[in-house]
Amino acid sequence: MFDTNKKIGILGGGQLGKMLCLAAANWDFKTYILDASPDYPAGAVCTGFTAGDFRHFDDVLNFGRDMDLITIEIEHVNTDALRALEQMGKTIHPSPRALDIIKDKGLQKKFYREHGIPTPAFELFETEKDLVNAVRQGGWKLPLVQKTRTAGYDGRGVAVLRTAEDLHAKLLSGPCLAEEMAPIQTELAVIAARNESDEVVVFTPVEMDVHPDANLVELLLCPARVSPLVLAEAEALAERVIRAFDICGLLAVEMFLTEDGRLLVNEVAPRPHNSGHHTIESAQTSQFQQHLRAICNLPLGAVTQKMPAVMVNLLGEPGYKGPVRYAGAEDCLALEGVCLHVYGKAMTAPFRKMGHVTITAGTLEETLKKAEFVKKTLKVIT
Length: 382
Ligand SMILES: Nc1ncnc2c1ncn2[C@@H]1O[C@H](COP(=O)(O)OP(=O)(O)OP(=O)(O)O)[C@@H](O)[C@H]1O
Ligand SMILES: [Mg+2]
Known about the structure:
Blueprint lengths: L6 E5 L3 H11 L4 E6 L12 E4 L5 H9 L3 E4 L6 H9 L3 E2 L3 H8 L1 H10 L7 E4 L2 H9 L7 E5 L9 E4 L4 H4 L6 E5 L3 E11 L5 E3 L3 E6 L4 E7 L5 H18 L3 E10 L4 E7 L9 H4 L4 H9 L13 E7 L6 E2 L1 E3 L1 H5 L4 E5 L4 E2 L4 E8 L3 H14 L1 E3 L1
Parallel strand pairs: 1-2, 1-4, 2-3, 4-5
Antiparallel strand pairs: 6-9, 7-8, 7-9, 10-11, 10-12, 10-14, 12-13, 13-16, 14-15, 16-21, 17-20, 18-22, 19-21
Helix pairs in contact: 1-10, 2-3, 3-4, 4-5
The site of magnesium ion has 2 residues, from loops.
């Protein structure tokens, strides 16, 4: 319902929360953030801020009591408290049930297997030692990808194990899974949205170019440079996945297009996603407004891509740590079609996500040329 007085609680006050609050403000929707500090990006733009820990039962419960609707900008939240709030009649999107599956990469992968959703072959292990034993006994061959089951993000819970030496040097500890190395041709991200009326729309698939050192997405292109058939297949797969999870809100589906033309689901995120930032400028509805539409059961907005777009993540320059400065910003702002988003984190650190730049132009080639200039020119330093 379109109700400007409804209190929307958001767990997490990072940049995704900030951009969600900004979209809500356009409709005079009231947003309340729960996170550690009002100095975080969303603190400056929300209606109200509560200092607390979204992983703590009491903090989430007490925060949620005053809300009509609760959503997230990060999936590692206390779902027991969300379930209790659900019992109290609060609307929670995405559902705690879906969050519990998605938070644990092991359960997530099992979910794909059970629902016939294509994903790289995998096996769960109680400890990293069990994984090493499986390799020694020939059950798994190198190279393989090891992932920790919980709390991994921005590539931190992922290790590519290529050699016997990597099995010591790169091994991550704790409950984990082994995944076959997918022969990746292109990495895609496809954002689907669904509302309570079971309406589903899917944004144009995005191509993600991953930074080799940071294991972080550095450059993002929309539409992805794949065939129209693959675009259509990727959209259909994203729709299938959001329906399988029964999620209201956004679901970003990260996929691999393999060298032999298969689409495999890597992982999902049930919230606005880095790969959807470009929609603010380049699509008819931004992912943030779409998330609000979806969780408030409003008609979903058109997802038509107005023009090609490239998004560059502004990562903290290696070698710099401290109060942030954006060198070269003026030179970039002088260019047509270059939109700068600064998240408002006071301190930079190597590879920290500090902002992003969306570049739109008539053709993808043109946007890429400007993106190269932005990457060379704009530096996040101290
Ligand atoms: N099975 C695989 N085969 C080949 N490469 C993989 C595989 N799984 C992951 N990768 C590579 O590692 C990257 C990070 O993996 P994944 O998305 O699962 O981790 P993450 O920590 O959740 O990352 P992020 O938060 O950046 O999305 C992928 O984008 C891909 O480049
Ligand atoms: Mg990922």
